[in-house]
Amino acid sequence: MDTKDIMDTNDMKEKKGLIRRIADKIFGGLNMSWPVVIIFAFFTAVFTAVIMIYPVFENTSLHYIGETVEAWILFAVIIMSNCKKPMESALKTLVFFLISQPLIYLFQVPFADMGWGLFGYYKYWFMWSLATFPMAFVGWFIKKRNWLSFIILLPVILYLSCIAGKSFKFTMDHFPIRLGLAIFCLLQVLIYIYVFMSGKLMRLFGLLITLGIIAFIMFFHRSLSVNGIHPLPEGIALTQDAVVVSEDPELGHVELENKDITGDFSTVRIKADHVGESEFIIKDGDKEYHFSLKVYEDDGGSPQVKITEKE
Q1: What is the pTM of this model?
Q2: Which comes out higher in pLDDT, residue 20 or 49?
Q3: Buried b (16+ CB within 10 A) or exposed e, 126-143
Q4: Contact 307, 268 (CB under 8 A)
Q5: Of 2-11, 173-182, 228-237, 247-256, which range is least confident?
Q6: Rounded to an integer, what distance in angstroms lies between the CA atom of residue 115 and that of residue 105?
């Protein structure tokens, strides 16, 4: 081995050592005292509120911090891994969520059209906050870095891998939307495998599960799901005799809803599991209506349905 090879090997060892030192510091080397937990909760709430308030962050990966739990899993793991006992982990994680979540809504109230009505969404997060107590108690044992850690982390790995796979798949069709979320979830899983799992076999299992789920979702799974009631074009009011006589089963299923609704239109229930365009026909006595059905995703990744009457 020449001098250059030796230097390259030493550089790799130094980098690997640096990564390990940083990981050990974040996940076990911080002073997670009660004042730190409270300050941590306050600043994560401020950061999240700012993301949710300013329109520039809409339709970006950052916006998901105020909608879904991926970032909050990371915050919880940081707290848990820096506690000395399971009960301390449970109490501090619970208090972190009980402080941060309502503050996020409180900071948004002056800037939101809904005003105090925003707190109607807090019910979901309050339930999750209460659930963090038992989860953080059990979660503390990931510090053991053994097969128990693997079992405890497995639901987290499965969830984050699914979100990463769905986000990568969406990015393929709407680049670069959700790319940041996909990378964030994948890196989070890789960090947990690296920090809380010991031994090549355990880490290999974790990595294969992660990559397998992501690959399956990206290339085989149909992630879009539509199952809702949608109005027919204005001016079409059906009677009790109306029936769907033709549809495209490759795209989805069409069911009549509220045929006897009063007004200028009736509604149908559309069920679909992927994007596409098709047609369906409704017969009502002597009348026959022909419609075009389009199922698609908007720029934010939400499924949309468009029904138009054909001439």
Answers
A1: 0.74
A2: 49
A3: eeebeebbebbbebbbbb
A4: yes
A5: 2-11
A6: 9
Q: What tokens were used for 167? A: 């986000």
Radius of gyration of the chain (CA): 25
Q: What DSSP line would sit under the chain, residue for residue?
A: --HHHHHHHHHHHHHHHHHHHHHHHHTTSS---HHHHHHHHHHHHHHHHHHHHSGGGTTSGGGGGGTSSHHHHHHHHHHHHT-SSHHHHHHHHHHHHHHHHHHHHHHHGGG-TTGGGGGGGHHHHHHHHHHHHHHHHHHGGGGG-SHHHHHHHHHHHHHHHHHHHHHHHHHHHSTTTTHHHHHHHHHHHHHHHHHH--SHHHHHHHHHHHHHHHHHHHHT-----EEEEEEPPTT----TT-EEEE--TTTEEEEEE-TT-SSS--EEEEEESS-EEEEEEEEETTEEEEEEEEEEE-TTS-EEEEEEE--
Alpha carbon of residue 44 to chain centroid: 18
Q: What are phi and psi of 248, to 5 degrees?
A: -105, 100
